[in-house]
Specification:
This protein is α/β, with parallel strands linked by helices. The chain has eleven helices and nine strands. 39% of the residues lie in helices and 20% in strands. The N and C termini lie far apart (61 Å). The model has no long low-confidence stretch (mean pLDDT 95).
Length: 287
């Protein structure tokens, strides 16, 4: 496994792989790798001939400087995981490489970047979109792999790749959960045992929505109220949003129609977590 912070070296190695007819896969990460990232890497390893993992904690997608400072950075552990999983190249750029002094160019993804996460974390998706475009332009992979856990993020990335005609296939991989249902996240290591117990209510509320739909519920506005009410029964949880949206537009329909996904974002004390669940629905017959 090779490790580099050089853009030129990455491009040289990718060009060599292409000349050999090899399929190049990229797994962009901010490090602090866990089983969810490992799953992405394994899927990339199965699908691609050459796998590149990027490790870069992007300050521009944090709207809270304290959150950025506290974000875990276990570099040696991350490199050991990448080596064990058969990664060919780790791209670990310096801040100045990705965000040069006096840099002013950013990518604005429009409405999708201003709602939900974008509303509660102003500038977040501008930071995400900008760094993803930079990474994809540096690595130029055939396929890039992202997790379903960050549902809005993967949707934003799909839109920007399509609208900017970036020649990369975006593959979204399933959310990986612990036995208690908590979606794996690099922030989970910050949770105390009591906070972790509280955090599991995010997934329980998502499952509750599916249970109601299975029982024939059709009033999504009422289900949204139930989601928020259930979460707010726990004094450790502060809810940012708990909603059901169209899977492609993130609009909030009032009735069951089309593909839907339930989304939740909440802080357990001062640790903010997100989760989602694509919903199985049976569209009621037309009257």
């Amino acid at each position: 496994m090779r490790t580099t912070g050089s853009v030129d070296e990455v491009r040289t190695l990718v060009n060599m792989a292409r000349q050999q007819g090899r399929c190049v896969g990229c797994v962009p990460t901010m490090g602090a790798l866990h089983a969810g990232h490992n799953s992405l890497i394994r899927i990339a390893r199965d699908r691609c001939d050459q796998v590149i993992v990027t490790l870069f904690v992007n300050a521009n997608q944090f709207n809270d400087s304290t959150d950025f400072q506290h974000y875990p950075r276990p570099l040696e552990d991350d490199l050991a995981i990448c080596k064990e999983l058969g990664v060919d190249l780790v791209f670990q750029p310096e801040d100045a490489t990705m965000d040069p002094p006096a840099s002013e160019t950013t990518v604005d993804v429009g409405r999708l970047g201003r709602i939900l996460e974008g509303q509660h974390r102003p500038g977040h998706f501008r930071g995400v979109a900008t760094v993803v475009v930079k990474l994809l332009n540096i690595v130029r992979p055939d396929v890039a792999f992202f997790g379903m856990k960050d549902y809005q993020q993967q949707l934003v990335i799909r839109h920007l790749c399509r609208e900017l005609h970036l020649p990369v296939e975006i593959t979204t991989c399933p959310t990986i959960r612990d036995d208690d249902g908590l979606a794996l996240s690099s922030r989970n290591v910050l949770l105390t045992p009591d906070q972790r117990t509280a955090a599991t209510s995010l997934y329980r509320v998502l499952r509750l929505v599916q249970d109601h739909l299975d029982q024939g519920a059709t009033d999504l506005d009422q289900l949204r109220k139930i989601m928020r009410s259930e979460l707010e029964t726990n004094p450790e949880i502060t809810v940012d949003y708990a909603t059901i949206v169209d899977a492609q537009t993130l609009a909030e329909p009032s009735r069951v129609e089309g593909e839907l996904v339930a989304l939740v974002a909440a802080a357990v004390d001062d640790i903010r977590l997100i989760d989602n669940l694509p919903l199985t629905t049976t569209t009621p017959p037309a009257s």
